[in-house]
Amino acid sequence: MNVVLRRIGNSEGVILPRELLERLQVKAGDRLEIIETEKGIVLHPVDDSFERQMKAAREVMDKYKVALQKLAE
């Protein structure tokens, strides 16, 4: 599969074919990790479940900050 490097604003990027995105189960907005190897680059979807869990925990801690402080006493 060949793709073309294109100018996107002040950067350059690659448009990935829809069929490839479907096989990889990724969509626009998903994060990909780029790994540089001797033969080129490898793209992996980023597992951001830990970051999502931490964000949810911070939101709960912010919402119940006073109650959590009282429980800690």
The total of beta strands comes to 4
- Terminus-to-terminus distance: 61 Å
- Which outline best applies? elongated
Low-confidence stretches: none
Please outline the major beta sheet.
2 strands, antiparallel
- The number of domains is 1
**What Rg is obtained from the alpha carbons, in whole angstroms?**
20 Å
Summarize the structure.
The protein has 73 residues and is α+β, with helices and mostly antiparallel strands. The chain has helices at 18-24, 49-63, 65-72; strands at residues 5-8, 11-14, 32-37, 40-45.
Supply database-style keywords.
73 residues, alpha+beta, Pemi-like Protein 1, Chain: D, two-stranded antiparallel sheet, 4 strands, elongated, SpoVT-AbrB_dom, DNA binding, SpoVT-AbrB_sf, AbrB/MazE/SpoVT family DNA-binding domain-containing protein
Description:
It is a single chain. This protein has 73 residues and is of the alpha+beta class. It has one domain (5-72): Pemi-like Protein 1, Chain: D. It has three helices and four strands; from the N terminus they run E-E-H-E-E-H-H. Strands 1-2 form a two-stranded antiparallel sheet. A hairpin with a 2-residue loop joins strand 3 (32-37) and strand 4 (40-45). The longest helix has 15 residues, at 49-63. It starts with a strand and ends with a helix.
Q: Which SSEs are present, and which pair or pack?
A:
Layout: E1 5-8, E2 11-14, H1 18-24, E3 32-37, E4 40-45, H2 49-63, H3 65-72
Antiparallel strand pairs: 1-2, 3-4
